[in-house]
Structures are given as C-alpha cells and as structure tokens.
C-alpha cells in the first residue's frame, strides 16, 4: 500500500514538474523564433555597407538579400515532415547548429559568393527551426486554451523580431562592421543548444510507411520555382520574361505532381485530407490573404515615408513601430479574445478592422499627418495580428498531432507565399496607377517621363538631371502620382481584406476545447535521462 502511495506521489511531482516546464519550453521556442525573425530583416540596413566592402554585382546583391527567404520558404515542408519522421527536437537542434555555423561564415565572408552561400545555409537552418517550434508547441500544449495563449506569445515575439531586425542592424552598424549583424546570433545559439537539449521534449509522428524522399524534393523544388518567380515579379520584372515565367511554370508543375503523388500514396508525406477540413483550408487561405496585405502595404508605406515625406530610414522605422506594438498587444490578448468570440468572429473582425484601417490611411497625402498615420498603423497592426492569430490557432488545432510538423510547415509556407504574392500583386497595382500620372508633364521629354515611370526614386533622379522648371514639374508630378497610386493600392487591399472576412465565415463559430491528457515533459532532475542524441 505504501509503495503504491509513494509511486502516486512521485507521479504527481513529475506531472507538476512537466506543467512548470512547458512554459520554459515556450521561452526556448520563442528565442528560436526571435532569431529567425530578426535575421530575415536585419540585413536590410546593412546592404550599403556590404556593397561598399564586397563590391557585389547587381545580381549578386539581389541574391544576397533574397536567398535567405527563398531557401527557407522552399524547404519548410521538407523539414517539417522530416521532423514528424525522425523527431522534431532533433531537427530543431540541428537547425540551431547550422544557423550558428552559417552566421559565423556570413560574418567573416570576404566575397559576395561566400556571403550568398552563408545566407543560403541560414535559410536551411531557418527552415529547420520554424516548423519545429510550432509543432513542438502543438505537442507541449495539448489543452487548446493554454495552446492559444502560447501561440499568442509566439506570434507577439514574431512581431517583435520583424521590428527589431532593422533597429538592431542600425545600432550594430554604428559601432561595428557589417558582419556583426550575423555574429550576434552565435552566442544566442550557444546558449539555445544546451538549454534546448535538456528542456525540449522529443516527439514524432506515427512513423508508418517510408518517408517520401522524392515527394519532399519535388515540394522543395516546386516551392523554390514558384517563390523565385513571384519574387521576380515583385521586383518589377516583366511578366513575359523567360527568367520569370520558367520558374513559375516549372514550380507549379512540380507542385501539381507533388499533390498527385501524395494522393496516390498509402502513407503520404503530407496528408492532403487536412485540406478537406473547412477550418484548416480556410485558415491557410486567411494566412495568405493577411500576409498579402501586410507585406505589400509595409513596403509601399516605407517608400511613402521616405520618398514623399522625406523621412530618414531610422525615422521611418520609428513611424512603423506603432504597428508592431499593436500586433504584440493583439497577440497577447488573442487567447482571451478567441475564447470569448470564437475563431469565426475573431478572424472576420480582424479582417474588417484591418480593412477599416486601410481605408482610413487613404486620407494620407503629400503632407505629414502623424496622428492619422499612427492611428491607422495601430488599427492595422492589431487587426492583422488578430487575423493571423486566429488563423494559425485554428489551423494548428485542426491538424492531427502526428501531422503537426507538416501542418506547421504548410502554415509557414502560406505565410511566405502570401508575403511574396503581396509584394508582386500590390507592387503591380501601384505601378499601374503611378506611371500614367507622369505622361505629358510640361517641358519633360517622353523618354524622361518613361524612365521616371519606373519608380518614384528613379523619377527623382531624372528630375535632378533635368533641373530647372522641368525637373521641378516632374518631381511634383511624380509625388502626386505616387500618392494617387498609394490610394488605389490601399483600395485594392481593402477589397482583398473584405474577401478574407467573407472567407473567414467558414471557420467554426466557437472554440472547441478538447480534453487531452497532459504531455509529460522531462522534469529537471530527470533531464539527463531524456536526452536524445542529435
């Protein structure tokens, strides 16, 4: 009898330790996410210094900036499903290691080619880390109410990382050389590796059937082609360009073949039946639409602040901070809102609030309306994060636990594709509305007007070359045309956001909190026994 009592007491103590550990696990996962999110944006402010030191060509510079998100987006499904197969913690710790090594290589790069390779390796590491954090979170928090709070904290950290990247990069560049923006990752990874090895639980899927290596490679190559084509469209390349069309066509064909292959396999790499669940497929669509609006608007807003209002890059970053702070607040309040309103009303209201903010920002003109801008950015950040939170939580809760890695990879891939499509689509709308405003400017030759129609920055360069009254007239017309294009783009964005609100009506009305047994994590005193070789 006494032995049974002692065993029960030991079990209770172990369960209590596990309950305490899962929040420590969340901290470790959030640090991982912060590093990946910061690294996605930290290089932007360092581009001039990199250009001056390494002297890359135009194509090389483009690859230095774009290869990280391109590789990361392409490999998310591969590593997400690999984690389901061999262990999510194992893939995460391998990602930590590769991320640290690649950061050192990037910091010490003495040529553009070495930096491109290092950035590609960082993308591989990021693709290992991102889906693993969400899938481990899905396992560690089986109770949906606690999981909603954890996802809210996770998403708030993602918002912080995106904002901190340029600010951290600017600070480091003022005191050190450009390689320091990468070197800062190494001490954090040196801490994360042993801590993650001790605290993070290992988990796998059901392990049935062989891992579909061919399917994983088809998904990676297909996503690489599609994302590359979309990025080229977003950078202003012609739709008819062979280097744009070929990656899109080949990538789409490979993805179509991947889908066909998965439907035929007894043990598919990604269970496409998940898309038959309205909550899952709707959540993925909502993520794409939300990111489509966010990234495109942020890009155009940055141009407006710098080129129309004449703010410095640091001032531009500070003006965008209210959007980040509002997103953080929405992430932290998301769990409570989800319990009270349910996924359908929460995501729908988030889209509507964002659409209202976008319409409000249409009042911006050539003068600096700071109060209006801050109000619009606060509503925009809160609405978009509310939408993303509700969509991510619904998507992750709808997926079976054994498919958590694949589901997380699908969510992150949707995030990346939405961002790329947003830049391409809204950039195209912007250019279509902007260019006609520069035709027929008095005193400006047709060739100069055509060159100025490519972008506002190029219009300013042409105006400086013309000088005199013609240059002043071109500069004035270009600024007015850009503001007009901004208004048209905002209107299109509002329409897409309202489309997202309609789509969100397919989500469940209430938050179904399934009862689950608590996941037993390694208690601190037993941590050594639970380690799995990486």
Question: Quick summary of this structure?
Answer:
The chain is an all-alpha fold and 534 residues long. It contains 17 helices and no strands.
Describe this structure in words.
This protein has 534 residues and is an all-alpha fold. It has three domains: 20-201, Growth Hormone, Chain: A, CATH 1.20.1250.20; 212-268; 270-511, MFS general substrate transporter like domains (Growth Hormone, Chain: A), CATH 1.20.1250. It is built from 17 helices and no strands. Helices cover 78% and strands 0% of the residues. It has helices at residues 2-41, 47-54, 58-86, 88-107, 112-140, 144-175, 180-183, 185-199, 213-234, 242-264, 278-308, 313-361, 370-398, 404-434, 446-452, 456-466, 468-503. The radius of gyration is 24 Å and the shape is globular. Residues 25-512 form the Major facilitator superfamily (MFS) profile domain. It comes from Streptomyces qaidamensis.
């Amino acid at each position: 009898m006494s032995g049974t009592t002692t065993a029960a007491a030991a079990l209770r103590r172990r369960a209590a330790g596990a309950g305490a550990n899962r929040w420590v696990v969340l901290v470790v996962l959030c640090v991982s996410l912060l590093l990946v999110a910061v690294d996605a944006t930290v290089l932007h402010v360092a581009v001039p210094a990199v250009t001056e030191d390494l002297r890359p060509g135009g194509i090389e510079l483009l690859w230095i900036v774009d290869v990280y998100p391109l590789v990361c987006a392409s490999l998310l499904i591969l590593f997400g499903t690999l984690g389901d197969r061999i262990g999510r913690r194992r893939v995460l710790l391998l990602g930590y290691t590769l991320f640290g090594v690649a950061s050192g290589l990037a910091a010490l790069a003495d040529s553009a080619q070495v930096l491109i390779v290092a950035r590609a390796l960082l993308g591989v590491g990021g693709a290992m880390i991102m889906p693993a954090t969400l899938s481990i979170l899905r396992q560690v928090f089986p109770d949906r109410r606690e999981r909603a709070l954890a996802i809210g904290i996770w998403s708030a950290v993602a918002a912080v990382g995106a904002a901190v990247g340029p600010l951290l990069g600017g600070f480091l560049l003022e005191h050190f050389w450009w390689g320091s923006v990468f070197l800062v990752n190494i001490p954090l990874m040196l801490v994360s590796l042993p801590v993650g090895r001790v605290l993070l639980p290992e988990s796998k899927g059901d392990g049935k059937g062989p891992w579909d290596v061919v399917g994983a490679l088809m998904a990676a190559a297909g996503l690489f082609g599609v994302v590359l084509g979309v990025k080229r469209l977003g950078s202003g390349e012609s739709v008819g360009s062979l280097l744009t069309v070929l990656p899109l066509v080949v990538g789409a064909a490979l993805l179509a073949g991947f889908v066909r292959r998965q439907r035929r396999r007894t043990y598919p790499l990604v269970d496409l039946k998940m898309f038959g669940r309205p909550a899952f497929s709707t959540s993925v669509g909502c993520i794409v639409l939300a990111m489509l609006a966010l990234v495109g608007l942020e890009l155009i807003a940055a141009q407006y602040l710098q080129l129309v209002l004449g703010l410095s890059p640091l001032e531009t970053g500070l003006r965008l901070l209210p959007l980040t702070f509002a997103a953080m607040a929405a992430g932290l309040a998301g769990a409570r809102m989800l319990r009270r309103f349910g996924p359908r009303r929460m995501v729908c209201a988030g889209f509507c609030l964002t659409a209202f903010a976008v319409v409000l920002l249409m009042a911006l003109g050539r003068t600096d309306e700071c109060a209006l801008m801050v109000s619009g950015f606060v509503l925009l950040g809160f609405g978009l994060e509310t939408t993303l939170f509700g969509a991510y939580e619904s998507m992750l809760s709808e997926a079976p636990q054994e498919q958590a890695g694949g589901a997380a990879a699908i969510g992150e891939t949707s995030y990346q594709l939405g961002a790329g499509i947003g830049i391409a689509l809204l950039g195209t709308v912007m250019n279509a509305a902007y260019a006609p405003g520069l035709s027929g400017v008095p005193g400006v030759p047709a060739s100069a007007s055509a060159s100025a129609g490519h972008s506002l920055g190029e219009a300013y360069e042409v105006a400086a070359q013309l000088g005199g009254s013609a240059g002043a007239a071109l500069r004035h017309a270009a600024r007015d045309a850009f503001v007009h294009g901004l208004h048209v783009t905002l209107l299109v964005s509002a329409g897409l956001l309202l489309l997202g609100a309609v789509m969100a009506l397919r989500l469940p009305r209430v938050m179904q909190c399934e009862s689950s047994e608590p996941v037993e994590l390694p208690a601190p005193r037993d941590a050594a026994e639970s380690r799995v070789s990486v």
